[in-house]
């Protein structure tokens, strides 16, 4: 894709810029508070202990670097609408093809993980009893149909829904922090005799009680907790005044990480010692249960469910926009590039929803929701790392081949190329870390299948159509 083509006026049938600053800010926050935090943090705590606080800080810094690179790239040419545009322009058509389809699969796998989470949390209202495989599949289908129906309406409705979903999550975590602090400062004693205290953070083996291996093992779910933070990049084409609103959303990431991850989990592990937290139960729901506030525990469970639905909503939105972009770049079926009268890529939406139905099948064949969740989240983590690495690679190309654009940028990536290489080394290291645990290694072993499919698709279907 050339800059000239990117700068041409919009033709009829383009996406509309309907998302305001408040939508973008809350979408960015909501993207950072996902299923991985609510459902996966219990397992991460059991693996890493209090060192989880350092894990989230480290990942948060690296993700922030990716987002700053993404922001500078998108603002360097406002005709860039998504990752597909700048990867195609800066690296080549194969990169746009790879990142577009991989990001699409990222959100499909997240959607499948979310279906597992929905079923898991609904068990709370089923007296804690697991659903049968058929019931799990039916719940999955109902969730997919509901989310698809919402996304068939206007993008502004999507923005409003994500605004309120995110607001609910923010308020829930703030309330959790407040209740947790009250429990700590009043010396609350749980039914098991544990007194809430900050000393729990170091009194049970120190900050690294499970050693280096446990510390590294905690990264998988922790990385998954951050996926979706780049959603602001896929909404760029539908955001009003991106030059003003995008930097605001991205620069708010560090404070969000400190409040919603580090502080919240610090409170959780101060109320309940890390080695007493059940990895199969959300520590957020458990904190209110420990406090003996049954109604609050029910409410928190509903909040967690809304968080999962928010994640699915974002995922379906993202997949449809990626397919739309791929189609417009002639890297996907033409039908995906058509908009309905509400300016929604309906065909792309239908296809993504149909693929999500595979998640319903997974619930049937893998009724163990925790196992299904781990498989889906690990695969998603691997794919997201690949997308993030391509964003950084695009930035390196931009930095070296278009220095004039970088020079006049008002939203530069701190550290430039040095930051890029640190980020690349870190995420490549994370792929190695995924091989250390048996449950995550399963997904790592099957991930090359997707890349083989992409290679076949590119060289045998896409490239032959573009030979001159």
Automatic annotation (TrEMBL):
All residue ranges annotated as the Amino acid permease/ SLC12A domain in the record: 23-463
Subcellular location(s) per record: Cell membrane
Principal location: membrane
Tree of life domain: Bacteria
InterPro entries, per database record: AA-permease/SLC12A_dom, Amino_acid_permease_CS
PROSITE patterns hit by this protein: AMINO_ACID_PERMEASE_1
UniProt entry keywords in alphabetical sequence: Amino-acid transport, Cell membrane, Membrane, Transmembrane, Transmembrane helix, Transport
GO biological process: amino acid transport; transmembrane transport
Record's bilayer topology term: Multi-pass membrane protein
Residue stretches in coiled coil: none
Transmembrane region(s): 53-75, 96-122, 137-158, 170-191, 211-232, 253-271, 291-312, 348-366, 372-396, 416-434, 446-462
Entry GO terms, CC: plasma membrane
Protein name (database record): Amino acid permease
Organism (species): Acinetobacter pittii (Acinetobacter genomosp. 3)
Species classification: Bacteria, Pseudomonadati, Pseudomonadota, Gammaproteobacteria, Moraxellales
């Amino acid at each position: 894709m050339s800059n000239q083509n990117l700068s041409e006026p919009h033709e009829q049938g383009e996406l509309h810029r309907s998302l305001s600053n408040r939508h973008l800010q809350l979408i960015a926050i909501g993207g950072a508070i996902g299923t991985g935090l609510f459902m996966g943090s219990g397992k991460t705590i059991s693996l890493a202990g209090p060192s989880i606080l350092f894990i989230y800080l480290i990942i948060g810094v690296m993700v922030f670097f990716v987002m700053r690179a993404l922001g500078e790239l998108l603002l360097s040419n406002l005709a860039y609408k998504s990752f597909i545009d700048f990867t195609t322009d800066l690296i080549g058509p194969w990169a746009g093809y790879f990142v577009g389809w991989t990001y699409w699969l990222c959100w499909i796998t997240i959607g499948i993980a979310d279906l597992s989470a929905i079923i898991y949390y609904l068990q709370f209202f089923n007296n804690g009893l697991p659903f049968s495989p058929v019931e799990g599949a039916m719940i999955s289908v109902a969730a997919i149909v509901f989310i698809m129906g919402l996304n068939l309406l206007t993008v502004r409705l999507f923005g409003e829904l994500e605004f309120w979903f995110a607001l609910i999550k923010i308020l829930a975590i703030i309330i959790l922090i407040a209740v947790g602090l009250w429990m700590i400062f009043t010396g609350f004693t749980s039914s098991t005799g544990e007194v809430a205290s900050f000393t729990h953070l170091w009194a049970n083996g120190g900050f690294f009680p499970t050693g280096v291996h446990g510390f590294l093992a905690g990264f998988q779910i922790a990385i998954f907790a951050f996926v979706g933070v780049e959603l602001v990049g896929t909404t760029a084409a539908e955001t009003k005044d991106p030059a003003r609103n995008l930097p605001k959303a991205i620069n708010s990431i560090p404070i969000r990480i400190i409040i919603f991850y580090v502080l919240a989990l610090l409170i959780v592990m101060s109320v309940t010692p890390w080695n007493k937290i059940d990895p199969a139960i959300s520590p957020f729901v458990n904190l209110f249960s420990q406090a003996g506030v049954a109604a609050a525990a029910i409410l928190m469970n509903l909040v967690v469910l809304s968080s999962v639905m928010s994640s699915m909503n974002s995922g379906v939105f993202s997949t449809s926009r990626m397919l739309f972009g791929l189609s417009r770049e002639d890297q996907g079926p033409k039908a995906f590039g058509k908009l309905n009268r509400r300016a929604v890529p309906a065909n792309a939406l239908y296809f993504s929803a149909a693929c999500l139905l595979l998640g319903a099948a997974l619930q049937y064949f893998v009724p163990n929701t925790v196992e299904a969740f781990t498989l889906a989240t690990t695969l998603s983590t691997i794919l997201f790392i690949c997308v993030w690495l391509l964003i950084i690679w695009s930035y390196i190309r931009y930095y070296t081949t278009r220095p004039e654009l970088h020079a006049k940028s008002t939203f530069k990536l701190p550290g430039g190329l040095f930051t890029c290489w640190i980020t690349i080394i870190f995420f490549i290291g994370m792929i190695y870390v995924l091989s250390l645990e048996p449950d995550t290694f399963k997904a790592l072993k099957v991930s090359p299948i997707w890349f083989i499919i992409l290679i076949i698709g590119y060289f045998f279907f896409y490239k032959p159509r573009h030979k001159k």
